[in-house]
Amino acid sequence: MSLLFQHGVMPCVLVVDDDQDLCEFLTYALTGCGVAACVATSPEQAEDYLKASYPSVALIDYQFPCGERITNLVEKLRTSFPRTKLVLITGHSSISDIAAKYGFQHWIQKPFVPEKLQELVVRLANENYPD
């Protein structure tokens, strides 16, 4: 499944997670389905990235040591980047409650199957490129 062939563009997914191993895994999985992954290991890095780019999808870990900055990042994405699809990634058991509380439209629970993540990202990114 690839977006590159469907729309002639390579969408970018912003990955915000402080776990380097997970970031590498996500980059590999996303690249495998024709999506460029831009990694930020902190909310501050994510905000720097947003100064120059408009991601199609943002995958954001909920459990950062600086929780309030994640809330601020999500709010900035919701207001300044309204077409960006927000996906919560976490191992927390009440993921749907957390997603609703913080304004995420979608979520995926860790551990997840790479193909399910790829399907979700491709579907969401395609919503930004209607036929």
The shape is globular
Question: Helical amount among residues, as a percent range?
Answer: 40-55%
Estimated structural class: alpha/beta
Question: What is the H-and-E element order?
Answer: HEHEHEHEHEH
Largest beta-sheet details: 5 strands, parallel
Strand order of the largest sheet: 2-1-3-4-5
Question: N-to-C terminal Cα separation, in Å?
Answer: 17 Å
Mean pLDDT: 84
Enumerate the spans where pLDDT stays under 50 for 5 or more consecutive residues: none
Strand segment count? 5
Radius of gyration, in angstroms, nearest whole number: 13 Å
Report on the structure:
The protein has 131 residues and is an alpha/beta fold. 47% of the residues lie in helices and 19% in strands. It is built from six helices and five strands; from the N terminus they run αβαβαβαβαβα. The protein has helices spanning 3-7, 20-31, 43-50, 67-80, 95-102, 114-127; strands at 12-16, 36-40, 57-61, 85-90, 106-109. A five-stranded parallel sheet has the order 2-1-3-4-5, sandwiched between helices. Helix 5 links the parallel strand 4 (85-90) and strand 5. The protein is globular. The mean pLDDT is 84.
